[in-house]
Amino acid sequence: MASNSVYAKSYNSFSGVDIKAVFNNKVVGELQAISYSVQREKAPLYTMGAADPRSFSRGKRGIAGSLVFLMFDRHVLLGHFGLYSNDPLKFSSDKDDIRPVVPETSAQGSTSVSLASATGETVTTGTTVAYAESAINNVGDDQEAYAPWYADQIPPFDITLAAANEYGALAVMSIVGVEILNEGYGVSIDDTVSEMQNTYVARAVAPWRAAGTVLGTPAYTEPPKQ
């Protein structure tokens, strides 16, 4: 059996079908691809009398990447964390922001969305929503917690990738403090699938590391010496 091979116990690999993505505490099944890159500023230091650098000065580090989602019947990130979620990650919004208003689904199944300002002015067709105006006497009086209606308004969250293959090998990695930057989407008559792309920046990356056991043995053992 494969479990008797020392190589099966030493080298463990994972494909995309072995990996689940967890955003904060929610499994996001729509994720098709994820990537990240780490860049850091490093500059050579030169002095007179030498063409080669004496040393290198290390500067700022930046972490960025991209996400690709398969679209079904709702916006992926806003469906999990935003306006269309039952448990959104709220952010501090101006009370007079023009924001979408999602009415309750009617008996006919209508889920039309209108835009209304805090003064109750209807910006597009839809039901006007009236807000009570109040005087601003203190810092923050014009702010309130509200569910994001753009992906870039979602507060920072963590992405954890958990991998488990058919041999029982486990591994995990994390991208910490993810903030969405850009969003792209398009559809045409030639598309059989609908995809959405996002780019992001992050605070830190914890690279892949083995976890758990493999068929009762340590997750990694040194291969036999030749």
* Principal-axes shape call: extended
Q: Total domains, how many?
A: 2
Strand residue percentage? 35-45%
- Total DSSP E strands: 14
Give the ordered list of helices and strands.
HEEEEHEEEEEEEEEE
Helix proportion range: under 10%
Computed structural class: mainly beta
The count of helical stretches stands at 2
Radius of gyration: 25 Å
How is this structure best described in words?
This protein is 5% helix and 42% strand. It has 226 residues and is mainly beta. It has two domains: 28-41 and 60-90 and 147-212; 91-146, no CATH class. Strands 1, 2, 3, 4, 9, 10, 11 and 12 form an eight-stranded antiparallel β-sheet that branches. Strands 5-8 form a two-stranded antiparallel ribbon. A two-stranded antiparallel ribbon has the order 6-7. The radius of gyration is 25 Å and the shape is extended.
Short description:
The protein has 226 residues and is mainly β. It contains two helices and 14 strands. The protein has two domains: 28-41 and 60-90 and 147-212; 91-146, no CATH class.
Question: Key terms for this structure?
Answer:
mainly beta, 2 helices, 226 residues, eight-stranded antiparallel beta sheet, 5% helix
Topology:
Elements: H1 6-10, E1 19-23, E2 26-27, E3 31-45, E4 55-70, H2 76-81, E5 91-94, E6 99-101, E7 114-116, E8 143-146, E9 157-164, E10 170-185, E11 195-202, E12 204-211, E13 213-214, E14 217-218
Antiparallel strand pairs: 1-2, 1-9, 3-4, 4-11, 5-8, 6-7, 9-10, 10-11, 10-12, 13-14
